[in-house]
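Exercise 7.
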Amino acid sequence: MKRPAVPPLSTVRADPPSSPRYPPPVTTPTTGAQRRIAIAVDLSDESGFAVQWAVQNYLRPGDAVILLHIQLTSVLYGADWGHAMDVVENPSKETRQKLEDDFDSLTSAKANALSEPLVEANIPFKIHIVKDHDLKERLCLEVERLGFSAMIMGSRGFGASKRKGKGRLGSVSDYCVRHCVCPVVVVRYSDEDGGDSGGDASAKKVGATRWRSAMRRRMRCSTMPMIVI
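Solution. The predicted structure, written as tokens, is:
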């Protein structure tokens, strides 16, 4: 008897959406994967670099990848990529809904741009977006709840923390290293002076510039279905 085809991971939807209150089904398209690798992304260039690094240096045949993004509910705009629109004081229900829809659309477009290296490498993946007010704790919760083998994340670029002083840089990755139940791989991304010196630093700066340009081009690609909780 011919077995029914399993849908690719990138098209899987949660219906009803999974959450700590509504756990996912026991059998999913990722069940047969040798390793389930999460890549925590905040939709920045730095997160995109972490995805590319994972494809080139960490992932192996048989792995399934989940791009994990926590969309903060405490903001309608600005946390990940700056203000998307003017501030609206005391918005109506319709205005607030439009702001949220625009924010979700922007999240979708950026998440799909980040997934392009996985598409090119033919690595099975899905995009998993969770809405919560606490970024660090929810990341650790999702890692434990979904049973990941490891999580990869960038060392900078997680939301507004990078803009509020150097003392908080890396606070999300540091928290996850201490509290996640699985190994956490932190990928350092830096195109600024003060890291390496000489030709290596110049090469890295050129590479980072090319990466940002590539990410902007990928924003024009068509969107892919994703899970939003």
